[in-house]
Amino acid sequence: MFHIPTLIAVMIIVQTIMVGLLFMAWRYNRRVPAVNMWFFTFALLLVGSVLLLPRQTLPPWITIVLANTVLVTGSCVSVIGIRHYTGRPPLPWGYVGGTLALFALILGYFTYIEPDFSLRVAIYGVFSGGISLLAAYEGIQRSGRHNMATLFFGVLSAFHGLFLLGRGIFSSLSKVENTFGSGANLLTQLVFIEGIVVTVLLGVSYIFLTTEYLSENLRRLTERDPLTKVFNRRVFFLLAEKAISYSRRTQTPLTMLFLDLDHFKKINDTYGHGVGDEVLSAFTQSVEGILRTEDILGRIGGEEFGIFLPEVDEEDALDIANRICLACKNLCVETERGDVRFTISIGAAALSDEERVQDLLHLADQALYAAKEAGRNQVAFASAGPG
Predict the structure, then answer these.
(1) Closest by alpha carbon to 61, among 105, 102, 116?
(2) Domains of the chain from N-terminus onward
């Protein structure tokens, strides 16, 4: 048999360690979203656990109502944190505050007006378990091949939420004794043991989430152009090789577009390189709004960009290229130096049986040159002339 105050003391020690670790993670990784929320989650759990301990000496409104409300608040902050981490909008603070106020009122009612230990346990299980399941949903639905830490957090939260809900249902159906010392029943002891284990694993999951974000950020830095956020030249051609291999294996068309901003040097000379950078960023955002998820957009160098269009034939590629030209012509980039408008020229080439990436790039480059010679702001196809 375990002594409940001893188990709470162990939990407090573990939570104190996690608070220290997460504070350091927050201090040195302030750009990681939600790391501050995770620190406050554990800080609240620590305060709640400390308030639980002096149940024999302090009044119930502190050791029962306030302590459990602080613990549930910590669970709410965890949900807010995982939503922020995964890019979801924050929960309305009115809903959060209303939930906590309702919980405190119900708990206070069954503490002072109609004291019922079993119902208090059931209420805590329903509220805290439901919030943990919400956190699990937020984590699992956003997990993927590169988000194993998010999946781990979601599965852990689901287990914890189901455990708390199960305890709450059991308490509502049976009379649970209000024992706090060494004479506590087995279920109460299991609850605190589970709490210690989940505390450790939850802290580990937060560290994993921080590491996952930093690793993903590093991966993006090695794959993406730092200004426009599209694929850099190395990754673009690497993905192009895979696209060509897939096209030949499946006998499906593949078309390359070679894009160049017209008179871009004049924009830099007139407005400055800062404005030129803004134009490039606005250009890539506009193009990405037209392309599909499977299309490959990369910056080849300077104001030159390439696009590979898997499973797109010449006719459809010409339509996409003309839409890009029109979108850029109609785009107005508002800058501190004034509004900037620009056009682009596009060369296109379709993959044939024997061509490699460099061959396709050469054909598209020749078509781009033809589009420039024909007056710019238009599309030229390597096999069909200006479009």
Answers:
(1) 105
(2) 4-223 (1.20.1070), 233-386 (3.30.70.270)
